[in-house]
């Protein structure tokens, strides 16, 4: 059975974006970029909620020509070629960039994906979609990358009710960011 991994960047004070929606505070150094490559090798499908989809599809299609950051230049082609599923009640298909849309039956759709063939599934960021899938008990692993910054507000990391987690690993990258790897208790 495929695992669903929730991968999210957060500030030390627990926000995934700033008070005005800004996401310009993460740092992808060489070690964190190499670890991201390891995670991407484990998965064959990216999952997004609408807000994160709009951010990702607005950046990654041309990131390898618009940026000179080594991570961006490498990941852009991976992003374009990897199948993507977008969960939204407001978007209308068809979507570009090898993406399909699911607008209802989230629990059934994700359960079907998890029981199907293939590598693991990766939910990138998005606290709203993360909360929905966590509340449904569909997330198998939570990988939180904590960056050395405080934002003072924004979207919380994972706005769910009380849920126990087991810490299964930690790792430091580039003497800056820290991975906290959890599974549901």
Automatic annotation (TrEMBL):
Start and end residues of each Bacterial bifunctional deaminase-reductase C-terminal domain: 3-178
Pfam families referenced in this protein's UniProt entry, alphabetically: RibD_C
InterPro entries with a match to the protein in the record: DHFR-like_dom_sf (IPR024072), RibDG_C (IPR002734), Riboflavin_Biosynth_HTPR (IPR050765)
The protein's name in its UniProt record: Bacterial bifunctional deaminase-reductase C-terminal domain-containing protein
Organism encoding this protein: Asanoa siamensis
């Amino acid at each position: 059975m495929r695992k669903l991994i929730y991968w999210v960047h957060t500030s030390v004070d627990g926000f995934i974006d700033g008070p005005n929606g800004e996401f310009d505070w993460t740092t992808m150094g060489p070690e964190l970029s190499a670890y991201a490559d390891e995670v991407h090798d484990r998965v064959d499908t990216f999952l997004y909620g609408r807000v994160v989809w709009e951010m990702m599809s607005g950046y990654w299609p041309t990131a390898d020509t618009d940026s000179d950051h080594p991570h961006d230049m490498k990941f852009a082609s991976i992003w374009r070629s990897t199948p993507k599923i977008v969960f939204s009640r407001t978007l209308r298909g068809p979507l570009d960039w090898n993406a399909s849309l699911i607008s209802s039956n989230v629990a059934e759709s994700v359960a079907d994906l998890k029981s199907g063939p293939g590598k693991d599934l990766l939910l990138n960021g998005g606290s709203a979609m993360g909360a929905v899938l966590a509340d449904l008990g569909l997330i198998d692993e939570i990988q939180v990358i904590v960056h050395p910054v405080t934002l003072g507000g924004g979207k919380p990391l994972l706005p769910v009710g009380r849920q126990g987690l087991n810490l299964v690993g930690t790792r430091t990258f580039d003497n800056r960011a820290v991975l906290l790897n959890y599974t549901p208790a």
